[in-house]
Design a protein that fits this description.
heterodimer, A: Alpha-Beta Plaits, 28% helix, B: alpha/beta, Glutaredoxin, 5-stranded mixed sheet, 33 strands
Chain lengths: 224, 1061
């Protein structure tokens, strides 16, 4: 067991667990977008940052990837953490305003507006789908391509993948496109309508701004 | 080469090589730099000529050639260094090569071709005497010139592999680690972690397989940094030796060199070196019979910047996407394929043989405690001596920039230095006193990084620089961390908006806020340092950001959307220079006159005395040729077109609020004119007998004839403007008095009329006068004060005006001008200096007066001391330092002091009136943008608020004041949003044809003969003739067309669209 303090509370947790696991186990809420139990930690969304260390050595780290260490002092909602989180939420809202998940987090942190140029993207590159496909579905049909601003998710060479079994797992885990997939029946996470073709987020370019291209498209039906 | 199988054989081999070296080395050797930089500058051509000449003249036995890697002095490439004399022949042309070879064979030097500092006659015989090399300590880089990188024997001859010898003899990893720890060597890759400590951890780290790696990180991706490349290219065996020693120290059995594919020459030399080492038995199984297995392999990186980060580098070696992962676990525990891995920078490893060979106790003698040893910097950008510089850590930044680098490469001053590549920060020139070490750089918001040093001068826009780096980083971020990927994109977006003039002030705060979050929340070094360029430029150059946002102006003239045509942007009054130049090219001189006159009520005056900021910024001047002679073209138009073609637009509305203007210099008259056009009744008060201020009293007639001046001044006085001469502020009128007389607003434009004093004894002697009074006496009243031998002190235009006026006076025998710095630092126009010298004025530089010698109240002479130039001061100029014992006296009958003026502000605040605020230096305090003074309704502009300045700046102040006074009287907000000033009128281009443009150079106006000038005040410069003017105008690049050219109708691209299923 490893002894550490979280928000001033002395706790001991199992060796090898991450700060996030420890905090969640103890009931400290930490928002995340790219973390999911059963998938390997990745540290892409940076929402789960917490402050460790003291004084000049204090720094922010992502709790989902940082292993607990003996004597560590963790603060999950310090001023610095909140400032960073709110800025990340602003950035997320500026790119992906339509995501229900992001809206919920924003309202929880009382972020009411964002100060950047509004975009309408449907992917935050959290990598959940990639890890789902690789680790749980053992298909490795999709992956990351490019770097920096041109980074995207897709199949190699954009060719329809032979190994994709159209399981829909990628869409199930997606935090950005959840809204359109569960719009009519929120309890059923995957509406199933897209499962007979490739996932919509992968064919974004072809279908432009359309939220989903099922025939008839649920989103379009509602708009009418 | 036979494989050496034991340590004894190795020792023996080394001894033999060292002994043989002393025997052969007798004939002169031509050393040529053929690194990547050298080859790009044409060293291969030089080499070809060298070989042909040597073979053709049968000199093979009398001279040898050594082809080396980069030697550091890249500005002078291609160059030849002749040993044993160490004569450096820079920037050699092919035809000069035989001369150099013949001289070298006969043991002579070709003086004409030797290195000289630009603009100086002194040539340097020895390489080490050249200022670039003099202050350097080239422990690591110095070997490059002695070694042909593909010849392992050269390395042995320089004592190479002696450190390995020492290590193998005393095979104790802990001893090596201790030695490196004692040396205090810090990682040269940027973060500055202690190498010895890293090795200790790596040495202890173990996993079950026993596999351990040492990686040499040669993924050098910073724009402008190339020291790692030069080391690998120039001295690969030193790196190999470092890696082998590191491998032995930490117990690794495999070494990897991760180098970018963009470095083909470095890869080639490394491959050769590895093969040589393998065949000698220094690499491979059972090295020299010691039982150690160690081999080195080269891994080529595909050039992603982020792969320089250690965890990303490991992923890349493993064949995965190069993206960093969370540390801990550190690579030392879990690296390549999960095995312990130690990663060191090329330069760090290059230091290892030095430490082991010389011993840690000798190594720490260089540098400062905590920052030992030397560091290589690549000095690039707007610097005279581009190249690689190796200095001890703790050397002051200004020594590197000014002493080694030679200062700015252009006339403008160095503004800042960017250290550490894209993740570093900008250090402003006033902070160049800081020592270069890891901790000091971090303290000022930058980093050491890999050692790139990009020098920027006043033509570099700091916002644009931040934008450039952010563009680089947003493309090079791996994209894994949301805040790094999106954060850099958003930072770029905001910076881009600022450079386009569409941002708001709040966005600067947003920039800072976001930049801090990006620094805080990203995983690897790339993201954590990505904010540095933004934060440091905002910290030190916030006013530039504000200037972009509020005034829609880019002070450096870089941001395209704000600058438009550079000539127009540079002009304080915004004259569309491109427009009148275009009209001249098309032969429409009247149109050209109108274009000039629209912005400037004194075109003929400016055509003669303007300091033509437009020409300094002319794109043509920055592309290798001379700028357009814009002022001469203006003169051509104003001399040939009658002023009446321009009918100013007058407001029909007659206003009743009266405005008082105090001072009738260019600022006051411009304000009066513009207010009159708006319909205000204006009264101008002038202390002298005539209107004109400095234009009238100080600019000599040979530069600005009185007739021209009078004509333009008289045109100002129309039905709305009344002039009251001989009315002095403080004596005849007061500011408060004017308000009680019913004036609604007062503009103070009284200029700077009081000469500054030298503060020497005897300054009140007869025969000593301030230049301004001397010039005034002559120009206004025709009194000739100067006689006999005249001395002038100063280096500005006013000093030269005084000197040249004195020379034209009847009783003057000789004129000498004394200046404390060199001609390069003189603020006067260079054509003025030339003309003065032509006329026979003796210009003495590097001289400071120390004592005025007098007899019964009359000046007899001047004692002076000679100066040498010392350290660079905060103004970016070298400080003159008196040379003790160099005092001398000159006999003088008159001394004119022209070392700047200050406003005579005593008259502004008479007793019993509310005070108007002054600045510490005696200038009047007025808000920069609105020109408001502390007393409501009072505005000020021109020299009275800035100190001595140019005519065009005064006109600009007058124009601005008229706008502000109008707003004030109408009760509007003074500070209003500024519009961008980009070209908007389309004038068809009329450029030179290809045949015509051959051999065309800048048109120079003819001057009257020197004999004619002496003793007369005839205007010296003549007008351009028509053909000259038209051709000159046709030379213009027409930067405006980018904005004004009618767009061709866009052709729609039809693509084969995929039909949706």
């Amino acid at each position: 067991m490893i002894k550490l303090t979280i928000n001033g509370l002395n706790v001991s947790v199992e060796e090898g667990s991450t700060i996030l696991e420890a905090a969640q186990f103890l009931g400290f809420p930490i928002p995340t977008l790219c973390h999911m139990e059963g998938l390997s930690p990745y540290g892409a969304c940076r929402l789960c940052v917490v402050e460790i260390g003291e004084d000049a050595g204090a720094k922010l780290v992502t709790s989902c990837t940082y292993p607990v260490q003996e004597g560590m002092k963790v603060r999950t909602t310090s001023k610095r953490v909140n400032r960073a989180r709110r800025m990340i939420i602003e950035l997320l809202l500026a790119s992906c305003p339509q995501s229900k998940v992001i809206q919920d987090i924003a309202s929880k942190y009382n972020v009411r507006q964002q100060r950047f140029r509004q975009e309408h993207e449907d992917c935050i590159l959290c990598g959940l789908c990639v890890r789902m496909c690789e680790e749980q579905m053992v298909a490795k049909a999709i992956g990351f391509r490019g770097r920096g601003e041109t980074r995207s998710i897709g199949t190699p060479f954009d060719i329809k993948s032979d190994v994709c079994r159209l399981c829909g797992g990628c869409m199930y885990v997606c935090p950005a496109c959840q809204l359109r997939c569960t719009y009519t029946e929120p309890d059923k996470a995957v509406c199933g309508g897209c499962a007979n073709i490739a996932a919509p987020c992968l064919d974004k370019d072809k279908f432009g701004d359309m939220m989903c291209y099922m025939d008839p498209c649920v989103a379009c039906e509602i708009e009418k | 080469m036979n494989r050496l199988s034991s340590l004894e054989e190795f020792k023996d081999f080394r001894q033999r090589v060292l002994k043989e070296k002393n025997v052969i080395d007798t004939k002169p050797c031509l050393v040529i730099c053929a690194g990547t930089g050298g080859q790009a500058s044409g060293s291969n051509n030089i080499l070809r000529v060298m070989k042909r000449h040597i073979l053709g003249n049968n000199l093979l036995n009398r001279i040898s050639i050594r082809i080396t890697g980069c030697q550091g002095f890249c500005e002078m490439d291609p160059f030849i260094l002749v040993e044993p004399g160490h004569n450096l022949y820079p920037k050699l042309k092919m035809e000069d090569v035989p001369k150099v070879i013949n001289a070298a064979v006969s043991g002579k030097v070709v003086e004409d071709l030797l290195y000289r500092e630009p603009g100086k006659d002194k040539c340097y015989h020895q390489q080490d005497d050249i200022p670039f090399f003099k202050k350097q300590v080239r422990t690591i880089l110095g070997d490059n010139e002695k070694i042909d990188p593909i010849r392992v024997m050269d390395y042995f001859e320089q004592g190479g592999y002696s450190a390995l010898d020492k290590v193998l003899e005393n095979l104790d990893p802990e001893w090596i680690i201790e030695e490196v720890q004692k040396s205090g060597l810090r990682g040269r890759g940027g973060a500055g972690f202690l190498t010895g400590n890293k090795w200790e951890l790596a040495h202890k780290s173990k996993d079950n397989s026993g596999q351990k790696y040492i990686i040499c990180n040669a993924d050098e991706g910073d724009p402008g940094a190339y020291m790692d490349r030069s080391l690998l290219e120039g001295n690969p065996h030193a790196i190999l030796e470092g890696i082998i020693i590191a491998g032995i120290a930490i117990g690794a059995n495999k070494g990897l060199i991760y180098v970018r594919t963009e470095y083909p020459l470095a890869i080639k030399h490394c491959v050769i070196a590895i093969r040589q080492a393998q065949s000698l038995g220094l690499l491979g199984e059972n090295i020299l019979g010691t039982g150690i297995d160690f081999d080195i392999e080269i891994i080529r990186g595909a050039g992603a910047f982020v792969c320089g980060e250690e965890t990303a580098l490991i992923k890349s070696i493993e064949g995965k996407i190069g993206e960093p992962r969370q540390r801990p676990p550190y690579p030392i525990e879990k690296g390549i394929w999960g095995h312990p891995t130690c990663i060191n920078n090329v330069e760090t490893l290059a230091n290892i043989p030095v430490i082991i060979d010389k011993g840690a106790e000798n190594y720490i003698k260089v540098g400062v405690p905590g920052n030992t040893g030397t560091k290589i910097f690549s000095l690039v950008g707007k610097i005279r001596n581009t190249g690689l510089v190796e200095v001890p850590l703790g050397t002051k930044l200004k020594e590197v920039v000014y002493d080694i680098g030679g200062g700015s490469s252009s006339k403008s001053r160095v503004k800042a230095v960017q250290t550490g590549g894209p993740s570093g920060g900008c250090i402003p020139a006033h902070m160049f006193d800081i020592p270069i070490d890891y901790d000091s750089l971090r303290k000022v918001g930058s980093i050491m990084g890999s050692g790139g040093m990009i020098v920027m001068d006043e033509n570099t826009c700091m916002v644009d620089i931040a934008r450039y780096y952010m563009k680089f980083l947003k493309e090079e971020s791996c994209g894994k961390c949301y805040t790094c990927r999106k954060g850099t994109q958003r930072l770029y977006e905001i910076l881009d908006d600022i450079t386009k003039g569409i941002a708001t002030l709040e966005q600067i705060d947003l920039l800072e806020e976001l930049a801090e979050v990006v620094r805080d929340t990203t995983m690897c070094g790339l993201g954590q340092t990505a904010s540095n360029p933004v934060l440091s430029t905002i910290k030190y150059f916030r006013e530039e950001y504000i200037e972009h946002i509020n005034n829609k102006r880019c002070p450096a003239g870089v941001c395209r959307e704000l600058v438009g045509a550079p000539c127009q942007a540079a002009c304080p009054v915004g004259t569309e220079a491109w427009r009148y130049v275009a009209h001249i090219a098309n032969g429409n001189y009247e149109e050209a006159y109108i274009a000039i006159r629209e912005y400037n009520p004194f075109p003929s005056i400016c055509a003669r005395v303007c300091d033509h900021k437009c020409e300094e910024r002319c794109k043509l001047g920055q592309t290798g040729t001379d700028p357009i002679a814009i002022r001469a073209l203006k003169r051509f138009v104003t001399d040939n077109v009658d002023a009446s073609v321009y009918k100013p637009k007058r407001s029909k509305e007659k206003k009743t609020d009266r405005v008082a203007i105090i001072g009738s210099g260019p600022a006051g008259l411009t304000a009066a004119h513009n207010l009159s056009l708006l319909g205000y009744p204006v009264t101008v008060f002038e202390a002298d007998h005539h209107a004109g201020g400095m234009l009238n009293s100080c600019i000599p007639e040979y530069r600005l004839p009185h007739k021209v001046l009078e004509k333009e001044i008289d045109a100002i006085f129309d039905e709305n403007v009344t002039l009251k001469c001989d009315t002095e502020l403080g004596k005849d009128i007061t500011v408060e008095g004017l308000f009680s007389d019913g004036f609604k607003a007062v503009f103070i434009g009284i200029g700077a009329q009081k000469g500054k004093r030298l503060h020497l004894d005897g300054e009140d002697s007869k025969g000593v006068f301030p230049s301004i009074e001397f010039l005034k006496a002559y120009n206004q009243d025709g009194e000739e004060w100067a006689k006999g031998r005249v001395g002038v002190i100063g280096g500005g235009n006013s000093a030269f005006d005084a000197a040249r006026t004195a020379l034209r006076q009847k009783d003057v025998k000789s004129v000498v001008l004394l200046y404390r710095r060199t001609r390069e630092e003189m603020p006067a126009f260079s054509e003025e200096i030339d003309a003065a010298i032509e006329e026979g004025i003796l210009v003495e530089t590097l001289v400071t007066p120390t004592k005025i010698i007098r007899e019964s109240g009359n000046i007899q002479g001047l004692q002076c001391v000679r100066n040498s130039l010392g350290e660079v001061d905060s103004s970016g100029r070298r400080r003159p330092i008196p040379i003790p014992g160099s005092e001398y006296t000159i006999n003088l009958d008159n001394l004119i002091i022209a070392i700047s003026e200050q406003p005579d502000t005593n008259s502004i605040n008479p007793e019993g009136e509310p005070e108007i605020q002054l600045n510490w230096d005696g200038t009047l305090n007025a808000e920069k943008n609105t020109l408001c003074c502390s007393r409501e309704g009072v505005f000020a502009g021109g020299d009275v608020i800035t100190g001595p300045n140019t005519v065009i700046d005064a006109i600009a102040a007058g124009k601005r004041a008229s706008v502000m006074i109008d707003r004030y009287i109408r009760g509007e907000e003074l500070q209003q949003p500024v519009q961008k000033r980009t070209p908007s009128v389309y004038i068809p281009p009329c450029t030179l044809t290809e045949e015509e443009s051959e051999g065309v150079c800048r048109a120079e106006a003819a001057k009257i003969e020197v004999e004619q000038r002496l003793g007369s005040f005839i205007e010296v410069e003549k007008t351009l003739v028509e053909k000259q003017a038209v051709n000159e105008a046709r030379r213009c690049l027409r930067c405006d067309l980018e904005f004004t050219q009618p767009k061709k109708e866009a052709v729609e691209l039809v693509t084969d669209e995929e039909t949706p299923i």
